[in-house]
Write a structure and sequence with these properties.
Elements lengths: L1 E6 L2 E3 L5 E9 L6 E9 L6 E6 L5 E3 L7 E6 L4 E6 L8 E9 L4 E4 L3 E5 L2
Parallel strand pairs: 2-11
Antiparallel strand pairs: 1-3, 3-8, 4-5, 4-9, 5-6, 7-8, 9-10, 9-11
Length: 119
């Protein structure tokens, strides 16, 4: 069974930084991970894509985080990171990581980690 384990959320003041991590664990010997990404869901809103990174390192970002957030990954560790700088109150949400298994055509989700930006 495959699990995504997230860490790094918390409370930060506006303008501050946080780094989220998400590691794929479990039965990973035959897993074929393609794109990995971060999504977020604020109270009363739909889940939205924040950033995505391919296995080759190509990235894409939501307009709202472009220039402030950086996604990266370590393929050997099956881990994806999200460096968040210049955080704003509107970045407050539960952040979820996602990993796509291209061999099986299915995706995996992390349990979510709360990010709160407030003074």
């Amino acid at each position: 069974q495959v699990q995504l384990v997230e860490s790094g959320g918390g409370l930060v003041q506006p303008g501050g930084s946080l780094r989220l991590s998400c590691a794929v664990s479990g039965s990973t010997l035959s897993i074929s991970i393609g794109n990995m990404g971060w999504y977020r869901q604020a109270p009363g809103k739909q889940r939205e894509l924040v950033a995505i990174i391919s296995s080759g390192g190509s990235t894409d970002y939501a307009d709202s985080v472009q220039g402030r957030f950086t996604i990266s990954r370590d393929n050997a560790k099956l881990t994806v990171y999200l460096q968040m700088n210049a955080l704003k109150p509107e970045d407050t949400a539960v952040y979820y990581c996602n990993a796509w298994n291209y061999a099986k055509g299915t995706g995996y989700w992390g349990q979510g980690t709360q990010v709160t930006v407030s003074s």
